[in-house]
Amino acid sequence: MADHLYDLLSPHLPPTDAKLSQNPTTIQYLNRLPTLSLDALQTTECQSLTQSAHSNLLSLQALSNRSHKSFVTSADSLCNLSSSIPRLTRQVQELRKGVPKLDEEAVRFSSKYSRVAENTTLEQRKKVMRLSRNVDRISDILELPTLLATAVSSAAATSGNAGTSFSTTYSAALDLHAHIKRLQTLYPDSPLVRDVALQAEDAMREMASNLITALHAQNLRLAAAMRIVGWIRRVAPELDAIHGDGGVSAGGGALGALFLVCRLANLVSTLEALEPLRELADQETQRRTRSLDQKSGPGSWADGHQTEKYLKRYIEIFREQSFGIVSLYRGIFTQDQSDLGAAVPGIRGIDRRIKTAQSSPVDCTPDPFQCLPPALATFPAHLVQLITGTLRTYLPNIQDKTARESLLTQVLYCAASLGRLGGDFSMVLTELCDADDEDTEGFAYEWEEVMRKHRELAGRLEQLTGAGPTSPTGSSKGALQPTSPAAA
């Protein structure tokens, strides 16, 4: 029925609508027309079609307003569809050709990284992956030398008062070095840890140099000196060890000698500050020598006032510094008698070593460096040579007997000050006089007179205070010592 109606209406349709016969909507509408009455076809059907067309137009307008971007995108895609399909076809063909090559590469990869046997490539890959997982830990290990060097330089820059401040920085540096040594013990075959340990040793050498420099500081106190020596012991423990039966040497070993050398350098630098006074004293010495050569009277040159100032200040500095050096040493490097006996073998020990050497076929010649005395045993002798050389050079310049006795009294108190620490050198001063020198001919008698007066004063003080036995210089150990020649 729909076909007959379409044939009947086709002359009245536009030529472009010839394909409407296959349209399902057209067929459905043609099937509906016979069901309508003639009156409905003439009156209501036109209005219904007009209303449906207007409703569809409004729907299309709303749809285009709401989804125009999708329409534009769809239109563009539809325009590119003609070129996209051939391109997709070419890519599919290329993919089809690459599948065999991909299969070959997969087979080669499988055979290369097979776990059937030991595979060096696979092991290397495992190492790389392990390195990637532990990159943070390795970065921390690599930063250890930098942190250590920063701590050492920061402590050296900020600890200006002989190590009395910023002790925590040095302690942190030593803790870092101990951690690096622990890593080296745990991983002895690791080249990374070995390089880190070498860099840490460089920083430790710099720290040891800074600590040794701190021992040269002025006004070094016992607490600061003990801290510095303790740090040096941790940085360079080999300084405490010396040849012997595996024990620590008496008197601090090489560290004690190093301490005395540093403090002696500080003493010498302090005495060198008296250079202007010493130059004036040298000028008086030259004038005295010229006057003796010309055999002129004693009034032809000055009576040694500049030399007196120089020696007075020299003896004051020497007394204070020498007593401080020896007292600091004894306060830091205190050893028991058992340690001293272990460091210096007795007669039985030497005899036992000789018998062992005779019975052993191996060459067991005793090492002469095993019986080295403590550094403090020879240090006072050097101090005595320092002050006696100065007195022998400049004391003849002083012609005033009262000034000379005042200086000798000051020297006597200096000897008594060191005598309390076992370094009395009062009897050595009797050798200041030279038999061939007329200027020093009466110094021995003056020194004996000063000693006699000092003993008489000490005896009176003992009677007043009821003190105990006297010191080698004749003074009581409990008696008060004058601090200046004026007080004497």
Describe this structure in words.
With 488 residues, the protein is mostly helical. The protein folds into 5 domains: 2-66, no CATH class; 83-130, no CATH class; 134-234, no CATH class; 236-375, no CATH class; 400-488. 68% of the residues lie in helices and 0% in strands. It contains 19 helices and no strands. The chain has helices spanning 2-9, 24-32, 38-42, 44-66, 68-112, 120-133, 135-142, 144-158, 167-186, 191-214, 222-235, 253-272, 275-293, 305-332, 337-343, 347-359, 375-394, 401-419, 443-465. Helix 8 (144-158) runs antiparallel to helix 9. The longest helix has 45 residues, at 68-112.
Draw up the topology in text:
Elements: H1 2-9, H2 24-32, H3 38-42, H4 44-66, H5 68-112, H6 120-133, H7 135-142, H8 144-158, H9 167-186, H10 191-214, H11 222-235, H12 253-272, H13 275-293, H14 305-332, H15 337-343, H16 347-359, H17 375-394, H18 401-419, H19 443-465
Helix pairs in contact: 1-2, 8-9, 8-10, 9-10, 9-11, 10-11, 12-14, 13-14, 14-17, 14-18, 18-19
